[in-house]
Amino acid sequence: MNHIAIIGAGTAGLATALVLARQGIQITIFESVSKLAPVGAGLLLQPAGLAVFAHLGVLESALTLGAVVTGLEGQLPNGHLLVNSHYREAGQGQYGLGIHRATLCHLLIQKLDEYQTSIHWRMNHQIDRIEDGGSETRVYGTTAGQAFDAAFAAVIVANGARSTLRPPAWVRLDRPYPWGAAWMIVPECLSLDRQILHQFYDRSQIMMGVLPTGAIPNKPDQRLSSVFWSLPTTELHGFMPDQAARGAWLEQVDRRWPTVAAWLDQVIDVEHPSAQWLSAQYRDVVMSQYGQHRVGVIGDAAHAMSPQLGQGANMALLDAWALGQSVAYGRRGEQIDWSMVWQHYHRLRGSSTLFYQSMSRLLTPLYQSDHWWAGVLRDVAFTWMYRVPYLRREMAVTISGLKTGMLSQMQYAQIATR
Q: How far is CA 146 from CA 35, 130, 152, in A?
């Protein structure tokens, strides 16, 4: 019998467990924490990610809790819209969905409950190493202070950007980004269009975002927004420690975007502002391949990148979809030809992953860097680009997550079909 281990119960791991369980495959999920409590600000699911949600049968549930986002607007201090991209330019009826990580996790676990006979949870299990033995793959780790090992038909590594389980020979690059973000979750912003991801830029040193992110499962009537403030990683610790820092920061925002500052003044705690803010740090991970023999790596463990294009969760979902397609392609009765699986998987995900990692690496310094020229170049180039209908459409398709190369793309229906 095919029994596959998935290491990590994040977006990639849960979605992969679901797509494989639907094929009748036994799945064991190893997670290092004792209870799932996803931490993180809201995120934006692009049309590509929503197509995977449709494929998994969770899109309708997601729409009841998430916030429909029709486009992205990026504003300079003078009020000029530097970025004005709308999903309708990528395809009729397309949209994004702002959603909380906790909500996304809840939806996938809820769907996994339909396959309880196929899903085996191993919480509080730390995996330390993997051995590919040819006819089986064995994991070694600890739980409750005791060592254990177990054998599986294959092992999928999906434990995030800081994974230590990536085969070293596959890793071309693994380094932290020098910039991260402080973020908080607050009541929904009524001062701005609630169907737009609003970003605010001043040179390449200042960047803020306000994303409508809907509700969490236990409070479905309380609509929320996520606020992001870009910072060098050296400044994340202790951001906004007291009332004086709160006032100085709000004054900085007010000089540029007074409407947003007035709203933030209402939602940021006066006495203990630091308690609302958490930090996010990012890595740049590039691999030469994502699978071989009976071991695969997916999600941020395989291709972590800057969040500039908003593709992290979408790429994790696309990985899960592609792996499901590839396992079905390589299956011969009860046997799975893993060489065929990985050949097909690389065909589905290789070019798209390379495109988005390259674009992210190219664009990130224009928004997060100390280069004096970066903001000037961005402002001139983007002002010109959005005047050209073809380039405006290409930017919308890129943001949608459907690109597979400079001149190629996937179709929503191709992914969404069950």
A: 19, 17, 20
The label of the residue with tokens 């593709």 reads 311
Residue 221 to residue 65: CA distance in whole angstroms:
9
Mean pLDDT of 235-260: 95
Helix or strand (DSSP H, E) at 110: helix 101-112
Helix, strand, coil share of the chain (percent; to 5): 40, 30, 30
Tens of pLDDT along 186-218?
A: 999 999 999 999 999 999 999 999 999 999 888
**Rounded to an integer, what distance in angstroms lies between the CA atom of residue 284 and that of residue 280?**
14
102 within 8 A of 117, measured Cβ to Cβ? no
27: nearest Cα among 142, 112, 126: 112
Q: How far apart are the C-alpha atoms of 56 and 316, rounded to whole Å? A: 14
111-151, pLDDT tens digit by residue? Answer: 999 999 999 999 999 999 999 988 899 999 999 999 999 99
Q: Tell if the pTM clears 0.85, that is, is over it.
A: yes
